[in-house]
Design goal:
alpha+beta, 1 helix, five-stranded antiparallel sheet, globular, about 30% strand
Length: about 60
């Protein structure tokens, strides 16, 4: 069985965690959305497409 990894997304641009279901940002990690690897990668790649030198978003591995 393949283990699905979980990721948080830190918005460098907005100085906060992405909330669940792409609904804004929060300063509290406990309120952050948890995304699959593929979902988080898609978000980060899309947000950073024109900002490779200074990214807007970063993936952070979720740890309980």
């Amino acid at each position: 069985m393949k283990k699905i990894s979980k990721w948080l997304i830190w918005s460098i641009e907005h100085n906060g965690w992405w909330k669940p279901s792409y609904h804004g940002y929060t300063k509290l990690r406990s309120e952050a959305g948890i995304y699959s690897y593929d979902e988080a990668l898609s978000i980060v790649e899309g947000a950073n497409i024109n900002n490779k030198d200074i990214p807007n978003e970063a993936m952070i591995k979720f740890v309980d």
